[in-house]
Amino acid sequence: MTAFAFLSDSSFLKSARNELARPYGIGGIAWDGAVTNRPGARFGPRAIREASHMLCDGIHPHFDVAPQNQLTDRGDLPLPNTSLADMRYAMAPLVKTLIRQHHMVWLGGDHSITLPLLQAYREWLGQPLAVVHFDAHCDTWEDHFGEPSGHGTWVHEAFQQGLVVPECVTQIGIRSSGERAAREYVRDRGGQIFTARDLRGRDGPAGMAPVVQAIRERWQASGRPPMYLTLDIDCLDPSFAPGTGTPEPGGLTSTQVLTLLEELADLPFVGMDCVEVAPPYDHAELTSQAAAAFVWTYLCGRMARSAGVTTAAPSSS
Amino acid sequence: MTAFAFLSDSSFLKSARNELARPYGIGGIAWDGAVTNRPGARFGPRAIREASHMLCDGIHPHFDVAPQNQLTDRGDLPLPNTSLADMRYAMAPLVKTLIRQHHMVWLGGDHSITLPLLQAYREWLGQPLAVVHFDAHCDTWEDHFGEPSGHGTWVHEAFQQGLVVPECVTQIGIRSSGERAAREYVRDRGGQIFTARDLRGRDGPAGMAPVVQAIRERWQASGRPPMYLTLDIDCLDPSFAPGTGTPEPGGLTSTQVLTLLEELADLPFVGMDCVEVAPPYDHAELTSQAAAAFVWTYLCGRMARSAGVTTAAPSSS
Amino acid sequence: MTAFAFLSDSSFLKSARNELARPYGIGGIAWDGAVTNRPGARFGPRAIREASHMLCDGIHPHFDVAPQNQLTDRGDLPLPNTSLADMRYAMAPLVKTLIRQHHMVWLGGDHSITLPLLQAYREWLGQPLAVVHFDAHCDTWEDHFGEPSGHGTWVHEAFQQGLVVPECVTQIGIRSSGERAAREYVRDRGGQIFTARDLRGRDGPAGMAPVVQAIRERWQASGRPPMYLTLDIDCLDPSFAPGTGTPEPGGLTSTQVLTLLEELADLPFVGMDCVEVAPPYDHAELTSQAAAAFVWTYLCGRMARSAGVTTAAPSSS
Amino acid sequence: MTAFAFLSDSSFLKSARNELARPYGIGGIAWDGAVTNRPGARFGPRAIREASHMLCDGIHPHFDVAPQNQLTDRGDLPLPNTSLADMRYAMAPLVKTLIRQHHMVWLGGDHSITLPLLQAYREWLGQPLAVVHFDAHCDTWEDHFGEPSGHGTWVHEAFQQGLVVPECVTQIGIRSSGERAAREYVRDRGGQIFTARDLRGRDGPAGMAPVVQAIRERWQASGRPPMYLTLDIDCLDPSFAPGTGTPEPGGLTSTQVLTLLEELADLPFVGMDCVEVAPPYDHAELTSQAAAAFVWTYLCGRMARSAGVTTAAPSSS
Amino acid sequence: MTAFAFLSDSSFLKSARNELARPYGIGGIAWDGAVTNRPGARFGPRAIREASHMLCDGIHPHFDVAPQNQLTDRGDLPLPNTSLADMRYAMAPLVKTLIRQHHMVWLGGDHSITLPLLQAYREWLGQPLAVVHFDAHCDTWEDHFGEPSGHGTWVHEAFQQGLVVPECVTQIGIRSSGERAAREYVRDRGGQIFTARDLRGRDGPAGMAPVVQAIRERWQASGRPPMYLTLDIDCLDPSFAPGTGTPEPGGLTSTQVLTLLEELADLPFVGMDCVEVAPPYDHAELTSQAAAAFVWTYLCGRMARSAGVTTAAPSSS
Amino acid sequence: MTAFAFLSDSSFLKSARNELARPYGIGGIAWDGAVTNRPGARFGPRAIREASHMLCDGIHPHFDVAPQNQLTDRGDLPLPNTSLADMRYAMAPLVKTLIRQHHMVWLGGDHSITLPLLQAYREWLGQPLAVVHFDAHCDTWEDHFGEPSGHGTWVHEAFQQGLVVPECVTQIGIRSSGERAAREYVRDRGGQIFTARDLRGRDGPAGMAPVVQAIRERWQASGRPPMYLTLDIDCLDPSFAPGTGTPEPGGLTSTQVLTLLEELADLPFVGMDCVEVAPPYDHAELTSQAAAAFVWTYLCGRMARSAGVTTAAPSSS
């Protein structure tokens, strides 16, 4: 046997595979071995790619661009699957190479993949990153039910390891239960949190303006660091994203997320991941189509608004 | 064999079948041979009828009327099913007769059925129509992947054939991808578009007042033409309507659509269709119940607000 | 045979079972023999308990408390299941005992269980109750398709039997069809109704303030009677709660309900039920997780805001 | 309100409704208030009718007849739904009339409907009946978890009430757990049992010959009493019939049941019921289509083989 | 827009795409516009390919070969989708080319694709073909509900057009209803039929020997014509293949089909199609995995047993 | 946080928990971190327990015993979940204790748990074991896609580590693809294999007699070693067990497995595991109910036939 059956054999937007000269790239990290509840996110990369095929000839209605010709799909990383530590060890050199070749969007997989991604960007860029973090959960646990790392510990680890600019970490959509120290972890270290509760009844560019403004101001005040976007699909309410591992009622709507992605598009993101899409619990591709739309919007936003920011010049961020 | 197994054997609201003297009628067009992605809308008429049975003794909470005694179900049209052209050819005389017998609501079926419906109304009424068009997609393609007509070309064809009053065509909920020429087709010809993005954060009569006002003003400014309502269920976000063929994340909520149907009720609609309900992708009747509620609200609105407008007097529109 | 297979063998939040000294208790009433459409709510108690396990170590993000140590699960009541009358007869003495032992939250079951619950509270407290009633349906029918009582008659019966303070009955989320006399039943007797239509576009504490204020003022004006909360999960739009027996499109969002539960938390509730969760129609635990979150929020609100109100001192309400 | 939403508005095989002169009739008994586990069989009559539409122009491949023109659908009986006793009381006079009008096939509903059906046939025919009983469960409990009657007690009750000829009661497919007295109840009273275990590896006319022969011989030896067929769909293995309330692994295949229905067709059945089809747990109509095929095979067998036996001449049995 | 969203972007067994030198090829015909009941077979090619990925490193346990290196996937044919006639017109030249390049296995699509496939083979080979036809339905209708051709008419058309050797047409698994003339059409013209009823209780090489022997003898007696295999997945019982358009209870088991495919492997097949896999009605990939296993078994059988028979030498058959 | 949300809070057959004096015990190993395709078996212990509740008052129809009073449920083992090696390290001492307290049945979890179980039994009993192994897959890979151990390597590892008596290893139901060395691994080392193909058409005690006889004879010829039963639910055909991670068409029926469990019951088994039940892919509890029935049958068989063989006297095996 040479490869796991769950690895994908198709490409995002049916873009050409492994075209090294294209500026944007897709990479799948089909790993779900660090979830605390429902597994299945290993099928996320495959399902998001399949869902993207509805968009494969599309031009974005807001940004008026189409990403196909600038995009290549680099497939799913070949990774071991019985140990988080071994997976991350194998993942590191692969990521190191890919982020130097393309502006990458990573399709997870569970949220434990974001820590090694941040480590790679931190090392490559030579500075800590601003992070926009969509999620139902704060992911600031100090351990994973007794183990050192899981899919709910990466924010804590990123702060501990100096991967992020604390004032430029923004969490959006948080509503998970937990002790105050965990819930306020980011705010206690200088970052900001917009809980799902804070955003109830807000939508559209006007409704979301305070969020966008706050992110922008902090970024400017902190010396305009490079930004990273991590989007856990469970930021959405379960009615919009049933196909995920740890759903939490009372979440964001898909239009709230789309509004933020559109309004934040001119910030200098250097990469994105979209994680925790777990197709076995999905229905009629609700979740994977939402994820595909978010990734597509991010890519179109990059191309439309940030022409000067490419992976070849990260310091220009 | 005499009839396809998918034709319905029950009636909307359990209303009496084939009562020619009743002013309102239901007709099913169980055709889905022109869809670009997921087929199944042939089961739409059956599923919407079944879903309507929860309403069969109901009195509408907003309009305070009940449509059962004024309504008859004329069943599903007998149609060939392997060719769009042949289907439309067979459909035309049947529709011609029915719209003269009743104020009809048509249950689709995919959106390719709206073109021959508009042709029939245009011919009968002797003038082009105002159209209120709920949809995720603009349906203005100039071809169907190389074929002349499909479920995404009818708006283009209707404009080309002079079936509509351009200034009185209003699209609501649009969010599909595509080139600018297609996306702005209706606006470029004098019509108006309220994208799903435009409506984010708007709901209730106050929130929707600008939309309602704009439709009304254009109608008055254009000589008060008869109006037609076409409602593609994919105007709803997929979380509200998973059972459809080409879902698009970021759509309307069911309360947004209900608000508009209620607020527009005093306009002189001469007919309605509700299309693209594809039950194989539905769950727990979410989509068919939404469709049944929309059709029921339309019918109750007709009866409550437009007592003077019946199929016997189309010119009074 | 000794017990029905559908009775639950697990406990809400994995709390200890049958700890008589704990102030809060959970009781299941796994009965769905009085529904007019889709049965299955007998599995509601089991599904809500299973769904609660995602919260079993949680601390509420708004109230900053955790209910586990003050809570006990008393299991599902042993009840006959072929006759509503016999079921209620068997239920009465069991409820009588339990409400004197704990501040109870009841997991239904269909809404026909609320009448005997109100009877028990009325008798115990010696006075009629204020009621906050979340529902799509007004439940004011005078009969159940020819039978005297069902899941849609209990409001009428409660008024007739003097179980409630009419001015302090508030219905929230109503949108069902029916004759005016039924729809306005509560208002005609002095109560108030916030239909789903009334709440379109309102969310968050500010958006919901008029509702909260109105409930509070009536309660104060009526001598501050003890309050009871009955939450039919179909108050939610079917996209948020597909797993219910009589879904109605156009309903509340889960954040609207959460907002109201949080904002009303300092009122002197003496008990709650959450009914009509019908798991056979659910998907990916959407409905049971929403129900679990609502019950958990209620319990945390009780503990956080109403320290002085316990089951030992109902008159202090 | 006048009727429950779950009552069917279509007819078996799309046959004409309420044609009193036709010899064969279909009646629905949409009741599931006496089940011990998963409810939902109230939707059985609707689902079996819908499933039958695939057969509506069919001619039976084994019997070479088509039943449509001799068949009428009498709809679902109007019945109260919160009490088994009240339901049976309302059901009795309706059944009494129908069995004198047509050779009826009854679509359940749960198995508690068979007792009043047998009572009606016993009274009409003036003698006890032979019964062929397909089921996973012996249905010989002496009570229903403390109540006198349920869906698992009717065999015991039928014996106690003298409704059956003990030697001519044959149970097929039995595999449920229970004490020996219940499992062997029928055999202890002179009847015979072919458990699912007994039939493992047997199929086709040759394989089933001993079963058929044994039934025939007992019937002849007992004076050729009229026969009744009651088919609980859970006689099938759950893989063939997931949509039922109390599935039991290790059951019959659909070809085993078809073989027996075909081979027994020349016996003088006076009626049949098909019960416990619970559509909420079904997938892709597996269960309702199996049920429709069984009912259709029974009807075709009647018409092909038993021309002399009609409802007008029950004594000829 | 350039291509329908439902076309597949992955390959069978992850084999290399468009390798013209490889002897075996896969072609998808994603068309379902001629079905009489549930559409969805357009997703069949995609689903069968995805399901095959579990086998992508496999060596067949019976034939001890692996097809990957001799196989190429030629993708889905680009076809119009609103007219059967237009689709067949576009399909013909594509098929003509492909069958000369590879020994093809065709993934449908509905069964209306088999007629033009047989036409292409007939023309290329210069003689009529023997056909082994697995199906629940005889597909011998003389029209398609009034239209000349559909998915149930191709056998009749093939006989009329002289595409087949009548004595060498074998139907296996037939159980559909219909008039005698249709059911016996093939037998009346000299062919043979093994109904599902005929095969009850038969399995394994010994049990299936008479079927295999009869096919072989007729083939030898008729001058050893080239053979074609068409496998409608609804030959399987719906419990094994719920994901199909016109399921029929009482069908074959997957082991019966596997046995026949294995035992017939040394006959000189020149091509195969596997049709009517309709993924929207499938569960957990039951149907698409069965289809993938059948195609894989056919391919392995070809390679193991028929080394001398390649597409370059059809006359050697 | 103290425990994963997926751990079960109910018990098999609703038996009492943690009763150390009872001879039989249930233990859950909710681990699925070593699967090659679809994860989800971590929910297996919970689902099998829930499914068992239909049997909770049952007496086995073949063995005429009921296990409740001799059985205790020891819950799910507390285990780390991001590393197979760490999980096995934590599992070992827990298993060591439990097998000395009770005759255990283990609910998996994926098949990687069987290796440490065999290690524990081997150490405790002081001798290698006979193994009856139901499975679609031979599980004899020498590595797990590059890692040393997974869910498909345990048979190889068990042979290498001397945990089994080679002549007494019997594989039943095997049909997976793979190279000859893997497929014949067990036979090459002296064991025996009954593939699913070998068993086609065999069922019932007579049909299965050769299998039973062969197992018994080898056991006697090898000095009657203690036996272990490992049952991978994917031995069943996917139609009987869709809820599993690596389904393979062409598998056993549930009656074939039940027959073997019944016929083998008098052999001296010292323990059993039932693995690879993956509820996210299940429908209507088909798979978990089959698993529950198998475990229940094993337990009843133990109690009925092997009164002298208890965990207190392993050497008597």
UniProtKB/TrEMBL annotation, chains A, B, C, D, E, F:
Binds 2 manganese ions per subunit. The keyword Nucleotide-binding does not apply. Mn(2+) 2 binds at D232, D234. Gene3D superfamilies: Ureohydrolase domain. Mn(2+) 1 binds at H111, D135, H137, D139. Its cofactor is Mn(2+). GO terms for molecular function: agmatinase activity; metal ion binding. It comes from the Bacteria. GO terms for biological process: putrescine biosynthetic process from arginine, via agmatine. Keywords: Hydrolase, Manganese, Metal-binding. Belongs to the arginase family. Agmatinase subfamily. This is Agmatinase.
